[in-house]
Design a protein that fits this description.
522 residues, alpha/beta, Rossmann fold, 3 domains, six-stranded parallel sheet, 18 strands
Length: 522
């Protein structure tokens, strides 16, 4: 067994059984090891940002890390934007980054770079494998780090000679029984003093917003948060962007704090208390002239209930006991039957088309930006579904994340809502979706512009944009041919210009397996 084979065997033994790969020359032995281990699924991505984004999507749905294979420092650099998004979403990930062999590095070949220096700002754990004998232990440590709560980014640098050299008889590999504890077992117990303090706040009857994030926006933790809200009259909310929310009919409803500063401050102005759960107090996404960075009203008090590494479900259990409300039932979102809309496409008709078309237990990955800000709030009464947002703000996350989510949940349809400008960053995802026959409906909102930047231009007070300035945020010369783009990558596609055609195209996309693309011409 060589070092690469030892590495792959250890990853599989630790529960990491998928690798999103974009290999190069230095990783050929690792590639051979991937192909030689039937327990490891390898997924080829045509750009490293697709690989890292797909690993993020996998974790958000599976709650266990995937691995990536990236080619040297430039390959890691190509993947860093979606590593940033994954880090902000608290997604676990194990990156394997190829490196020149030790003997070759002294000659400073062209692809030499400071891989550790590139990795450290966005990774929680970085290690260079020094020997084929120790690489199994390195891999086990990487998986253990990535599996912590909240999820962590682990990056293991793999020199070529470490891959091809044979493992010695005295290998420092971990015992086969070594298995990282499941994420729930790693979560810390919240402070009893904090629980009692928040219980006093809630008993005061003063207007309180409980802001949920990460594991608190789904599963039993969300249900128990709903029971706390029902017992106390507190309102449940989330930051505008969240890693994953379980929402729709039969779920505990959560209000999203608006993105725009003026709307967000208006939403928050009447709350006397904000209780945070696995998140911090609401802040503006950007700084604007003469607008606040902190969105709460003056005098509003912020009370942390659950820190990032603590157990939200346990915290709400403790809080229900402190409130004497252990038997309280939560308020649930009723089903709202939305008729299929007709007429022109606008945020309202788009929202109604979505609400009417989304099938039960689908996954919605949202990077629609301009369109989605106004639409998603109107889908609360749709069939139960999961909503995934971009936590880090680096665009080009949606199509890769949808790819990983579809691989994680092959029995669920994934709807990927993305603006045309964002989609161009990682459009190579379509090719992987076609190759793997993934159930992804990619919805391109084609306004032929970075429309969000036109709004931000005004928000920043930069004055009236000149024709030359506008040319830098319009993408209509030439106009992107989305149908041809999809066809070239093996994905069936259709263009729609009315609300009824949009609804029909979404429904049709669920009737056959595999990917498709809908261009919504705005």
């Amino acid at each position: 067994m060589n070092g690469a084979e030892s590495l792959v065997a250890t990853l599989v033994d630790q529960g990491v059984d998928i690798c999103f790969a974009n290999p190069g020359t230095s990783e050929m032995h690792f590639l051979a090891a991937l192909g030689g281990n039937p327990k490891m699924r390898s997924v080829l991505c045509l750009f490293e940002g697709v690989a890292t984004g797909a690993a993020d999507g996998w974790y958000r749905m599976k709650e266990k890390p995937a691995s990536t294979l990236l080619h040297l420092g430039p390959g890691l650099a190509n993947g860093l934007a979606n590593i940033h998004n994954a880090k902000r979403a608290s997604s676990g990930m194990v990156n394997v980054v190829g490196e020149h062999s030790v003997s070759h590095l002294k000659y400073d070949p062209p692809l030499t770079s400071d891989i550790e220096g590139l990795a450290r700002p966005l990774c929680h754990w970085v290690r260079r494998a020094e020997s084929s004998d120790t690489i199994a232990w390195d891999a086990a440590q990487a998986v253990a780090k990535a599996s912590e709560h909240p999820g962590q980014i682990a990056t293991l640098i793999l020199p070529g000679d470490t891959s091809w050299q044979q493992v010695g008889a005295t290998s420092a590999a971990p015992e086969p029984s070594f298995t990282p504890a499941p994420p729930a077992a790693k979560r810390k117990t919240p402070s009893a003093e904090r629980i009692e303090h928040v219980a006093r706040v809630l008993r005061s009857g003063e207007p309180t917003l409980i802001v949920l994030a990460n594991r608190a926006t789904r599963g039993v933790a969300l249900e128990k948060a709903g029971r706390v809200a029902a017992a106390t009259g507190a309102r449940l909310g989330s930051q505008f962007f969240t890693a994953r929310i379980e929402r729709g009919a039969g779920r505990v409803p959560i209000s999203r704090i608006p993105y725009a500063v003026a709307q967000a401050t208006a939403f928050l102005k009447d709350f006397k208390h904000i209780v945070t759960v696995e998140t911090k107090e609401p802040v503006a996404f950007f700084a604007y002239p003469d607008k606040p960075s902190l969105l709460k009203a003056e005098g509003t008090l912020v009370h942390p209930l659950v820190e990032d590494d603590e157990d939200s479900e346990l915290a709400f259990d403790m809080l229900l006991q402190a409130l004497g409300a252990a038997n309280q039932a939560p308020l649930l979102q009723p089903r709202i039957e939305t008729p299929a809309p007709t007429g022109a496409l606008n945020p309202m008709s788009i929202a109604h088309a979505l609400a009417a078309a989304l099938p039960e237990h689908c996954i919605v990955v949202d990077e629609s930006l301009t369109t989605g800000r106004e639409s998603m709030g109107l889908t609360m009464g749709a069939q139960p579904h999961d909503l995934i947002n971009n936590m880090g703000g680096s665009i080009g996350y949606a199509t890769p994340v949808a790819t990983g989510a579809a691989l994680a949940c092959p029995d669920r349809r994934v709807f990927c809502m993305v603006g045309d400008g964002s989609a161009m960053y990682t459009i190579q995802s379509l090719w992987t979706q076609a190759r793997e026959n993934l159930n992804v409906t990619t919805i391109i909102f084609a306004n032929n512009s970075y429309a969000i930047l036109k709004a931000e231009y005004a928000n920043m007070g930069a004055g009236a944009p000149s024709e030359r300035a506008l040319s830098m945020i319009d993408i209509d010369r030439p106009r992107i041919d989305w149908l041809a783009m999809a066809k070239s990558m093996g994905v069936p596609s259709v263009a729609v210009q009315t609300a009824e055609d949009f609804h029909k195209a979404m429904v049709n996309s669920t009737r056959e397996s595999g990917p498709c693309l809908i261009e919504v011409r705005l």
